[in-house]
Amino acid sequence: MRIASWNLNSAKARLPRMVDWLADRQPDVLLAQETKATDESWPADAFAELGYESAHLGNGRWNGVAILSRVGLESVTRGLDAQPLFEDVVEPRAIGATCGGLRLWSLYVPNGREVGHLHYRYKLDFLAAVGAQAATERARFGAHTGFGLLGDFNVAPHDDDVWDITAFDGLTHVSAPERQAVTALMTDTGDEPLIDLSPRASADHDDLRPPYTFWEMRMLGFAKGRGMRIDLALVNPALAQRVADVWVDRDARKGAAPKAPSDHAPLVVDLD
């Protein structure tokens, strides 16, 4: 069974590339973020032709999350129970479903903008709400059910998860409160901690480069290796024990128009 998580940076712009990628990599479940689509504009028919059911939550602006599955799509939950508001709006940033017996969430954590900004406070509150949801669901589904939080967390958990930690001094994505919030939702949501699956940098088993998942489009970020590992797969022991391989599909970050890439690469988790 193959699970993947991918920040699309627009489902409409990425649709031709998505169709090719789904046909080539054959994931059983794809957790998508930043679709920038409404529920009405979400291209469900295109994915159905490839054998995928899909559930989407979006308003067509800068957010949007989805789950595509060809192994069942049950108990779909749109949004977090205690999700905070930003500017009086509950943004479409979280969707969960049971797929192939696994309880999975696609998450698009707020960027935070800058330390001390209202959006930064919102980011920390959102992560706390993810933790509360995880605690509730882990208790509900039990320790024997595979459980995972996957998506764009907009947090690099460790210094070596960014290309140059000195370049991020005082910035978001690496601040102590953000990292502590991720640690808390891993350690405080069940009897056993969630596990941060550490990927390989590409499909090549001998690739020893840092396993970044995001590179900025500007200033030749990808070509110069100025990346970050901010797309995460946090899973419970029941799911972790089934993991055979974890890797970044770096090739999906390459290319140009008319099938231009997202600024994120898919994170792929292969299970026995």
UniProtKB/TrEMBL annotation:
Its cofactor is Mg(2+). The keyword Phosphoprotein does not apply. Keywords: Hydrolase, Magnesium, Metal-binding. Residues 4-264 form the Endonuclease/exonuclease/phosphatase domain. The keyword Hydrolase applies. Belongs to the DNA repair enzymes AP/ExoA family. This is Exodeoxyribonuclease III. It comes from Jatrophihabitans telluris.
